[in-house]
Amino acid sequence: MIVDDLVFSDFFSPNGDGHNDTYIILNVENYSNSSLKVFNRWGEIVFLTSHYLKDWDGTSNKGGRIGGKK
User: Fold this and answer.
1) pLDDT at 36
2) Would you give the DSSP letter of residue 7?
3) Cα dihedral sign for 69, 23, 27, 46?
4) For residue 1, what pLDDT band results from cuts at 50, 70 and 90?
5) Is residue 3 within a helix (H) or strand (E), and if so which, with residue range?
6) Among the four residues 4, 17, 45, 63, which has the most C-beta atoms within 10 Å?
7) 15-28 per-residue burial string, b: 16 or more CB within 10 A, e: under 16
8) Are 54 and 28 in contact (CB under 8 A)?
9) Residue 67: pLDDT above 60?
């Protein structure tokens, strides 16, 4: 998906194989006030950060997770 000059990845596979292991948003560095919120299917925030650096690997840093942290 493309919004303005941001390009959002359609998928990522954080399985440690070195390919598509983090969620990429191209050009996000152009937005100093950027943030990323990731919700699970029940609407609970599982990941939240400001100044996103294209480094989310699927690990939860909030509540709302099922099982482990990934």
Assistant:
1) 92
2) E
3) negative
4) low
5) strand 2-3
6) 45
7) eeeeeebebebeeb
8) yes
9) no
What pLDDT is recorded for position 7?
92
Got the DSSP string for 21-51?
Answer: -SB-EETGGG-TT-EEEEE-TTS-EEEEEES
Q: How far is Cα of residue 70 from the mean position of the Cα atoms in its chain?
A: 12
Distance CA(22)–CA(43), nearest Å, equals 21
The answer to whether 10 and 2 have CB atoms below 8 angstroms apart is no
Over the stretch 2-52, which tens digit does the pLDDT of each residue have? 678 899 999 999 999 999 999 999 999 898 888 899 998 889 999 999 988
Q: What is the pLDDT of residue 20?
A: 93
**Is 67 exposed, middle or buried (CB count within 10 Å of its CB: 0-12, 13-18, 19+)?**
exposed
Query: From its phi and psi, is residue 53 left (phi > 0), alpha (psi between -120 and 50) or beta?
Result: alpha
